[in-house]
Amino acid sequence: MAWTVDALRERLTKIIDPEVGLNIVEMGLIYDLSVDEADNVHVRMTLTTPGCPMHGSMADGVQELLESLPGIGRVDVEVTFDPPWEPKMMSEEALRKLGWL
Hints:
two-stranded antiparallel ribbon
């Protein structure tokens, strides 16, 4: 099975940021997601703050979820804080759920 970026992004909506209760895609924590012709996946993501206590578990959750998908090759998860996450990176739906819109 050839995975698309959109299909992988949809799968990542299963991972919830425990501090906010919204998924990491709506939160704007996924900066880049790519899949090559061999179904190897690279994810560039961030967290809400550099000192986030969920640092390891969030990245591990992304890695484990993607590796569990049939046909996925190597999974590389890069956590970055450049640029720093800001609430304006959230989707409109996430902002509505939090009552910010």
